[in-house]
Amino acid sequence: MLPASLALGLALGYPLVRQVVLSLQEFGLAQQFGQAPEWIGLGNYRELLGNGELWPVVLRTVAFCFVNAGLTFAIGLGLALLMTRMSKVTRILTQCGLLLAWAMPVVAAMTVWQFLFDTEYGVVNWLLTALGGDFDGHSWLLDPWSFFLVATLVVVWMSVPFVAFTLYAALTQVPEDVVEAAQIDGAGARQRFVHVVLPSIRPVLLVVVLLQVIWDLRVFTQIYTLQKAGGVSKDTNLLGTYVYTLGIKGGDFGMAAAAAMFMLLLTVVLTAPYVRMMLKQERDA
Fold first, then answer.
1. Residue 171 and residue 197 in contact, taking contact as beta carbons nearer than 8 Å
2. Which parts form a coiled-coil structure per UniProt (predicted)?
């Protein structure tokens, strides 16, 4: 185990340590060309926390994360329940469709979504206009609210297959005799679901929710691509694109590293309750 553990520790530990060190230095474009970085301690963190741009981005990120995680979980659970009641042919066709959506590369999927919501030639504007709405030439990406509506559609569409497949696999492992016993004892469909099915798949539910929260906090590609397609970066930045803006666009890699560490801390804080529930359940088991 020791060689594998050392290799894993080096692969995961070095980038994290390097990022911590970078966040404590003034590291800009000059340092990229060989100038020695200046050690400034917590200066980047003080400047970051005092920056008026950070907190709106944090609130936006947390709200976007929980809305997307909640929608993804609800739709994925609904599809998983439906798949348990579908015929074999219908279930296989549904699973193939979900698999194709999940396997599609992010950039390719974003190209399709951009065409759908295109201002001049988008199918969405054409359809809504045909239905009587005033959407001719409407730009979905200029307004932050409609921008995040599109972003939510994209992120949820790409995340639902994982949740649906995982929960469907868990639902197939629920003991049928326990469900039948509850039905014989007079429990209705809702009671069986709440008091028998959900407790049986609780460990899987916790893992799915935990992963979904982490993934939705780290969303970058979808937001960045939509910003490039016409969104206003200042009003639509999430933490992932904010770190990119500080480092790659702004050239302040020390500040970007501090923002990335802040993002890591936020992820730990938001996921800690789920981790505690998982550990408690493991101890009880």
1. yes
2. none
Inter-residue contact 65 to 53 (CB < 8 Å): no
Q: Which of 79, 21, 67, 66 is nearest to 253 (CA)?
A: 21
Q: Domains of the chain, with CATH numbers?
A: 42-284 (1.10.3720.10)
Residue 38 near residue 25, CB atoms below 8 Å: yes
The closest of 266, 262, 254, 259 to 23, measured between CA atoms, is 254
The string of pLDDT tens digits covering residues 14-49 is 888 888 988 898 887 777 777 788 888 888 899 888
Mind listing the pLDDT tens digit for each residue in 188-230? 888 888 888 888 888 899 889 989 999 999 899 999 999 988 8
Across the chain, which has 285 residues, the per-10-residue mean pLDDT values are: 88 87 84 80 88 89 94 94 91 91 88 88 88 84 91 93 94 85 83 86 89 91 89 87 88 89 90 83 73
Q: How far apart are CA 28 and CA 252, in angstroms?
A: 5
CB 41 within 8 Å of CB 20 = no
Rounded-to-integer distance, Cα 182 and Cα 188, Å: 8
Count of residues in the chain: 285
Q: How far apart (Å, rounded) are the C-alpha atoms in residues 142 and 254? A: 31
What is the pTM for the complete model shown? 0.86
Tokens, residue 172: 């197939």
Measured CA to CA, the distance from residue 76 to residue 156 in angstroms comes to 9
DSSP, collapsed to helix, strand or coil, labels residue 134 as coil
Alpha carbons 63 and 152: distance in angstroms, whole number: 11
Chain position carrying tokens 């340092």: 31
Hey, what amino acid is at 149?
L
